[in-house]
Amino acid sequence: MDKVSPAQAAATLEEFWSQRTIGEANGNLFKVAKGIGSTNWHAHDDQDETFLILRGHLTIQLRSGNIELDQGDLFVIPRGVEHCPKADDEVHFMLVGPQVTSNAAGGKPEWSYSAQTPADNVD
After folding, report:
1. How far apart are CA 20 and CA 6, in angstroms?
2. Which domains does the chain have, with CATH numbers?
């Protein structure tokens, strides 16, 4: 058993909108990620998605309106609810859920692979 600092683990990530598992308990994965720009609109039909903000500000865009999250805030998106996380500046967060969802179906934008930023893809 080792102690883990979610904030330190998130700070070491290179890719935006990619998740790294830092722990597991009771069938749930504890994952850290960082974001900038936005993901694609998506929904998870098989799991709720729990966000805990470690650093910065994250807007969870929902079809019914935006949810603004700051450091220390927690928000649960129920399964099946379409959403689009967005960050104007770099944000670090922890996710809790039974699976890793940082893939195209989980909203991961194409530009975010290989440590790129949205600015790297301006035409």
Report:
1. 10
2. 19-98 (2.60.120.10)
